[in-house]
Amino acid sequence: QVQLVESGGGLVQAGGSLRLSCAASGMIFSINAMVWYRQAPGKQRELVARISGGSPAYADSVKGRFTISGDHAKTTLYLQMDSLKPEDTAVYYCHFMGYWGKGTLVTVSS
C-alpha cells in the first residue's frame, strides 16, 4: 500500500533553514501528484507547495523562501525551507492521491 514518511523537521531559529523529505513507497512516484501541506496549532491545514502544470506553485506566505523538488530515483519529495519565520511553525505533511503521511514538526523560534 501507499506509504508516505516525512522527515527533516526540528527546532530552528528564525532566519534558518530546513529541508524536509517525504519518502514514498507502494505507488508510482510522480512529483506532479504530490503536495506539501502544513497545519499550525489551532489552524486549518493549508497547502504549502505543489507542482502544477509542470511548474511549482506556492502559498503566498512562503513564496521566495520555500522550494519543492523531487527525486524520482529515490521516490522522495523535498521541501527546502529558507529564511524561516516563527509563523512557519507547524506540522508539515505530504499528500498523494488521498494518502497522507504522519507529518514532521517544524518549530521556528524567534
Short structural summary:
The protein has 110 residues and is an all-beta fold. Helices cover 0% and strands 55% of the residues.
Task: Spell out the blueprint of helices and strands.
Elements: E1 3-7, E2 10-13, E3 18-25, E4 34-39, E5 46-52, E6 55-58, E7 66-71, E8 76-81, E9 90-96, E10 99-100, E11 104-109
Parallel strand pairs: 2-11
Antiparallel strand pairs: 1-3, 3-8, 4-5, 4-9, 5-6, 7-8, 9-10, 9-11
Written overview of the protein:
It is a single chain. With 110 residues, the protein is mainly β. Helix content is 0%, strand content 55%. The protein has no helices and 11 strands. The protein has strands at 3-7, 10-13, 18-25, 34-39, 46-52, 55-58, 66-71, 76-81, 90-96, 99-100, 104-109. The strands form 2 sheets. Strands 2, 4, 5, 6, 9, 10 and 11 form a 7-stranded mixed β-sheet that branches. A 4-stranded antiparallel β-sheet has the order 1-3-8-7, with no helix packed on it. The protein is globular and about 40 Å long. The N and C termini lie far apart (40 Å).
